[in-house]
Amino acid sequence: MRGILRVGSRKVWFYIVVAVIVGLVAGYVVLSEPDSPKLQSEKGILDLRQVQLSTNPQKLTGEWSFYWQELLSPEDIRVRSAREGNQDHWISIPSSWLGYPLEGQRLSGTGYTTYRLMIKLSEQDRNERLTLRLPSIFHAYKLWVNGELLAEVGEVGQDKNHVTPHLETKLVYFQPESDTLELVMQVSNFQHHRGGITKDIELGGSDVLTTKTNLNLARDMFITASLLVIGLYNLLLFMLRRKDKAPLYFGLFTVLLGIRSLFNGELIFTQWLPHFPWESQFKIEYLILCLSGYIITMYFDCIFPNYVSRWFRLGTRIVTGAFCILVVVTPAIIYTKFLLMIGVMVVLHMVYLMIGLVQAAVRRMEGALIFLLVSVITLVTVVNDFLYYNGWSLIGNTSPLGLLIFTMAQMVLLSSRFTRTASNEEKISSELQDANDKLIEMNMNLERTVQERTQALSTAHDDLRTSYDQLLHSEQGRKKLLAYITHDLRMPLSSMLGYVEAIQDRVKPERNEQYLKYIRDNTIRINRMIEELSFLSHLETGQVSYRMEPVQMITFLRDFFEQYELVVRDVGLDFILDIGDAEDQQPNLPVVEMDAKRVEQALFNLVSNAMKFTSRGGLVRIALAVEEINHTRHAIISIQDSGMGIPPDQLEQIFERNYRYDRPGLGNGIEGSGLGLAICREIVLAQGGTVRAESDGKMGATFYVTLPCIGNEGRG
Per-residue pLDDT tens for 277-300? Predict the structure, then answer.
């Protein structure tokens, strides 16, 4: 185990070193903008006579004249220089005046001052249209170019009550018309712990700097839009599947980063909402910064469970909550002093997570190595931003690009995770379905399966067992048939024997013809009863096979009606078919999987029963309806007659074998054996349906056959 960890750790650390190198190269090669040549001002004078600014913009870095606690106009500076001579102090730009040594003391971050820079231009640039690209300057300023006030951001003042802070990037266009350029800038700051010109001011041709600014703006908008779209997409994924909280934390993290990117770089938010309160802008930015470490920790805990300790989770909640409360309840002059501590907190979160990622990568957990590599790159860019905003790095605002790379990698990780989860669910579902099918098959064939696996019987033995089972069913059927014949044929045979003896003994010779007719009718009845008893015994012992197939019920009932219409009408009854309601449900016509011949036999038994108990001139009506029962569509066939009715207390008995309800006065000449309804019930039950009867006992009865539907396609 130790050997595996040692080898795995070497590989992981190798990848970490590669990621750090990639991050540094991306930061210093791609993100930095080398200038050729690099010129700096000395004692407030910058010589650019050897540079063509129209094609080669320059950053105005180096020493600027510095007038602390004075707000001087260009005219004030000229008058003062003429009267007192050159007694200027110089400060390096870009940098904050925080900590600047002046007369034995180090300056605080609040106050006001005036900057001045003299620039010597080449002959070519005198008549060119030049541009100053001004970054966000903490936190209000005025700018004069050759004595002309060209830019004013916020309101400059000598105390907090007279200063209005504002952050904005600007392009200032002008025509030099001389070989000397004087820049005078008044800057005030009483809201932030660092004041001054902390970012590079660029001077160059208007076309070049305008294009560069537009490209930077397009880059910032692309990064912001990408982060917001990715974040909202993941939040939507969480809304659709709330069990997995990883998309929730990643979506929140990405959306918050997208919002924060609006306050950096080209300050898109300020351009869209120039009157948005400055204090609220800073609070939003710092709150997002405070929450990012905690949110990414929760996201990591969802992706790699059990790697974040309970104590670290509790500690990060407390620290994050404390910093958030500090940002909310205190002014910017206080909570901005904790920027370094907030940065340390975020970096510690990332370092802690990367330690866990190293362990996960060593254990070869899926996605851990990619997560680790992009986290290292992101950490490099985030650390660089904290160093830059504290004045310790020359490369600024790299974190949006690093975080975009991070979010893209996480999108790939989450997508693969979702894909793997969906594939596993499909695989598990398929395996469960196969197992369920096999279990059903085993349950249906348990006896045979046990015999095959435990006794390893030969094919001959299986055939013998099958023959034995068939003989057993036949024997059971024979016994039941014998019992039925013994019970049900005793009475008609006894009656026929009495008629025969009466003829032999010539009891009433004049009635011999009538006795012979009774004997003939009873013989026919006994033959029909024997057939029905045999069929019923086969039904009850499971010896009847069914040919199940999808059947379109409307077509089936129409064929049935046409086949038996003349039979019913010949006995003087009206025969009606009503399928109007079911036929209106196009295209979802009812389809039932059944044995059409057997169901036809069951329905004819019901129609025959209606014919038997309905007087001449009566009505037999067949209807079809479709109803939803327990979330399943059912076809309900009703057979209604206008006959004598069935007592309600006998409705449950009429489907029992040999039940008969005869009432004198029926003249249709049809006699029953009492087996038709029993046969009907057995057939319908075998189709997975039910049969029942309704009657008030006075007039008419209705029989309902309910069969489950399977779809809208079947045979006609």
Answer: 878 888 888 888 888 778 877 877
